[in-house]
Amino acid sequence: MAGNQKAKAKTEQVKGKVKEAAGRTVGNERLEAEGRMKGAEGDARQSKEKAKDVFKH
Asked: pLDDT digit string (tens) for 3-56?
């Protein structure tokens, strides 16, 4: 399960970066903000999984 969550975190981070770059390219501030938010969700998920790994060992 943890591997699945780690992959999901990476996917969210990548999607966020792509969305943010697309928003910046076309000048759409809303799309850029959504990308930053999606990236932050991925960062939070990744941090949670890292913390779980620390306490597991």
From this structure: 888 899 999 999 999 999 999 999 999 999 999 999 999 999 999 999 988 888
Contacts of 6 (CB under 8 A, 6+ apart): 46, 49
b/e burial code for range 3-39 (CB count within 10 A of at least 16 → b): eeebeebeebbebbeebbeebeeeeeeebbebbeebb
AA letter at 8: K
d(CA 40, CA 17): 10
